[in-house]
Amino acid sequence: MNQTFEQPTFVFFRSFPENLMTLPPLCSSLQNIESCFYFISLNRYPNALISCASALESAMKSILKKSTDDRISATNLYNEAIKEFPNLESFDIEKLKKFRETRNRFSHYGFSPKDNEESAVLILKTGIPFLIKCHKEFFGFDLLDGLIVEISEHLKFALESYEIINHNKSSNLKYCFSSFAHLIRWAGLKYDAMSILESKVSEIGQIDNMKFEIWLSLKEKLENALNPSWTFNCPVCNEPDSFVCELDDVDLNHKIVSLKRGICANCNLYIPNDAFVLINMLCKYGKETEKNEILGEYGII
Q1: Could you give the dihedral angle defined by the CA atoms of residues 61, 64, 67 and 73, in that order, rounded to the nearest 10 degrees?
Q2: What is the pLDDT of residues 79-104, one digit of tens each?
Q3: Which residues contact 187 (CB under 8 A, 6 or more apart)?
Q4: CB 118: neighbour CB atoms within 10 A?
Q5: Cα dist. 56→37, 53, 123, 192 in Å?
Q6: How far does CA 218 lie from the centroid of its chain?
Q7: DSSP E strands: which ranges in the chain?
Q8: Residue 72: Cβ-neighbour burial (10 angstroms; 0-12, 13-18, 19+)
Q9: CA 280, CA 277: separation in Å to the nearest integer?
Q10: How far apart (Å, rounded) are the C-alpha atoms in residues 261 and 276?
Q11: pTM of the entire structure?
Q12: Cβ atoms of 278 and 162 closer than 8 Å
């Protein structure tokens, strides 16, 4: 019987491993990565962790050429992959064990909202970093480079801000995903969720300049609410002069521009106080180029 293999559809990838179609579990790995991203955007971090773990196991089964009939346990699968690829040994074994055990607990016994923080941390600390390392070792594929540029950029922001905030022993580390999750919602889910009527109203609103009036009014309210504030280009929707950020007034008096939180008047991107490291990463260029203007506006120089 002839069988036709159809190229799978991907949303967040722009390049792929060369042997994608010859190793079916490899397709599953990339598909589970995309599912992981969608779950993160919906703040369903335990689901995202499960998808991330499935992406890892599919990648391992792919490179180890495991058949669909092979019922190898996750522990043995990890051990076999690490034995086959010694460079993986540099990854903390205890972190991987914790990751697997948590995935098994969620899969077999369920989870609740209180598990969101733990799941987000495990994804940032173990899941995605080990996934990146495995794809590089197994297939010579740079996972971050294979993603759409904007997706990759904000995923890097999440990973980098986690490293800094975790070093300072902060809580609410799930907020490291704030801009990444919002980008997925903005780029991948917003228009899919719109009805035809909502879409038409949106178009008419733009034509009649209604959107601009609403945007301007909202921006002014945000600037007053977050005073002292400064407005940058939004790092997600790229709308100019739309991302209203609260300035740290103590640092400002010492001629230092640092941000505490921010909201976009256009796409509603919200970066809370707990993600102050992330917001300063997102607006790094704007802070550097507009520093003197900001200090001048507030009479510091």
Answers
A1: -60
A2: 999 999 999 999 999 999 999 999 99
A3: 150, 151
A4: 18
A5: 14, 5, 12, 28
A6: 27
A7: 229-232, 243-247, 259-264, 270-271
A8: middle
A9: 5
A10: 6
A11: 0.90
A12: no
